[in-house]
């Protein structure tokens, strides 16, 4: 597959004076080409013979009126005077409203009983950082501030509280306080009945009693598991270097036995990229997991020869696994959310709720945007002790606007409509600016887009014995 990068300004040489859309991109593989619109996600497949005059901008030499009609209809070619900047602005404006908080991360503690070598929370904490435990008072105040945000929210998306850490089960006192208080606020109408509760845990501290308690409060649990024992323990160890697999699995079994909706948070990196299909098969077979997602490890804790190649290989492995999951009725979310946008022609403005929909409360009661900034305190400018109006906070507004749709360096990218811009914290870590690109995610998003295009072609061909020029 060769990515051809469209001549976006190519003006036609016929009387109609056409040009390729600014958002039109051309891909070619095995003598089949595809013109693809990065915002509307419309496409037209084409034979290589038909593509040659088009690539020269020689519209009059295209001996295929049906093809020209389709390209115009899908706005892949547009009148030369057509101003598409306005179209982009119209789309981005629909996503540029004020922050509308619907997710609360309660960081019950930064302490953890594991010492995973890729842990970005631990890495973000300066050596002199003093980890703490959230008090019961702070827990209740954080939930109050969140309930006030929900009362002003107009979002119809799911509202969620996520208990987070470190390892949140190290602070059972505040977890119990939170669950009791949430129950009370649901009863008196200050929190919605549909509020979803999630706990992210390494699983090792889960006992039968804790599992039953979580079940009673209808808490969904995500357990971090990277694969079978050796793979899991490559990076996930106790501080004394002991492996963590057995304790994690014991906790996982308690949760399943209690009837809890358990999902798996699996970090994909050099330790498991060769066995991602096997891991998905294992999740589905042994644990009856029907949906999961990879955390793509952008910055592995072991040296890799070339980071670009590493990310490319990881993307290819994730896509191979996605194909396996498709065939076996498993939903893998990391690739799936991009493919869903592609299939539904629905632009994804962001990849992360931190872009205007999320608040994070630190153990000390500071309100911020992204938990990865806990160590530096950046973007943690508010406090649970004061009224919290994210719409009046410049940092929340800045994150809200952080989208490829507002990032000039993204406008000519083919993945513009589906990518969502990756992780703003990763962009910050590498460039010092959340509004720059997360380049490793760009590689991933580009791979998913190409896969989606050729998968569409394969399916169209299979379903209708399509000849080139078949549109989808
Ligand atoms: S910015 Fe990145 S690290 Fe922060 S919440 Fe979003 S995805 Fe997670
Ligand atoms: S963030 Fe990267 S992949 Fe996404 S639109 Fe921008 S350049 Fe493309």
Give a structural overview.
The structure is a single chain. With 472 residues, this protein is α/β, with parallel strands linked by helices. The chain folds into two domains: 81 residues, no CATH class; 295 residues, TIM Barrel, CATH 3.20.20. The chain has 16 helices and 16 strands. It has a ten-stranded mixed beta sheet with strand order 13-12-11-10-9-8-7-14-15-16. A four-stranded antiparallel beta sheet has the order 1-3-4-5, with helices on both faces. The chain has a two-stranded antiparallel ribbon with strand order 2-6. The longest helix is centred in the C-terminal third of the chain and has 26 residues. The two termini are 19 Å apart. It binds iron/sulfur cluster (2 copies). One iron/sulfur cluster binds next to helix 14 and helix 16.
């Amino acid at each position: 597959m060769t990515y051809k990068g469209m001549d976006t300004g190519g003006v036609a040489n016929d009387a109609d004076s056409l040009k390729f859309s600014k958002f039109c991109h051309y891909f070619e593989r095995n003598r089949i080409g595809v013109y693809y619109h990065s915002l509307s996600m419309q496409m037209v497949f084409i034979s290589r013979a038909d593509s040659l005059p088009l690539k020269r901008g020689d519209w009059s030499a295209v001996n295929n009126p049906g093809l020209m009609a389709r390209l115009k209809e899908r706005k892949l070619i547009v009148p030369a005077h057509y101003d598409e900047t306005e179209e982009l602005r119209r789309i981005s404006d629909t996503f540029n409203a004020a922050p509308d908080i619907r997710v609360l991360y309660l960081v019950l503690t930064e302490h953890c009983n594991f010492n995973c070598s890729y842990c970005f929370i631990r890495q973000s904490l300066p050596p002199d950082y003093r980890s703490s435990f959230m008090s019961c008072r702070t827990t209740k105040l954080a939930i109050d501030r969140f309930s006030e945000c929900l009362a002003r929210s107009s979002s119809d998306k799911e509202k969620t509280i996520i208990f987070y850490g470190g390892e949140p089960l190290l602070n059972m006192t505040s977890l119990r306080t939170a669950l009791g208080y949430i129950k009370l606020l649901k009863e008196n109408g200050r929190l919605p009945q549909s509020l979803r509760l999630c706990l992210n845990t390494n699983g090792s501290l889960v006992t039968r009693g804790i599992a039953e308690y979580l079940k009673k409060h209808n808490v969904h649990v995500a357990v971090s598991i990277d694969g079978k024992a050796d793979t899991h323990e490559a990076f996930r160890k106790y501080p004394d270097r002991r492996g963590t697999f057995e304790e994690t699995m014991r906790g996982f079994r308690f949760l399943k036995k209690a009837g809890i909706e358990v999902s798996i948070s699996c970090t994909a990196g050099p330790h498991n990229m060769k066995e991602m299909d096997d891991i998905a098969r294992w999740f589905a077979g042994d644990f009856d997991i029907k949906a999961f997602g990879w955390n793509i490890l952008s910055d592995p804790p072991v040296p890799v020869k070339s980071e670009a190649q590493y990310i490319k290989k990881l993307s290819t492995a994730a896509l191979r696994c996605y194909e396996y999951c498709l065939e076996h009725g498993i939903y893998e979310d990391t690739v799936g959310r991009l493919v869903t946008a592609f299939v539904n022609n629905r632009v994804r403005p962001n990849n992360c709720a931190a872009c205007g929909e999320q608040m994070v409360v630190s153990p000390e009661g500071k309100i911020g945007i992204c938990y990865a900034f806990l160590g530096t305190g950046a973007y943690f400018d508010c406090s649970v002790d004061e009224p919290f109006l994210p719409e009046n906070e410049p940092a929340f507004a800045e994150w809200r606007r952080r989208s490829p749709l507002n990032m000039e360096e993204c406008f000519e990218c083919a993945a513009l409509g589906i990518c969502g811009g990756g992780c703003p914290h990763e962009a910050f870590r590498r460039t010092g600016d959340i509004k720059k690109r997360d380049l490793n995610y760009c590689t991933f998003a580009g791979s998913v887009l190409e896969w989606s295009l050729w998968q569409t072609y394969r399916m169209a061909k299979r379903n209708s014995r399509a000849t080139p020029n078949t549109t989808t």
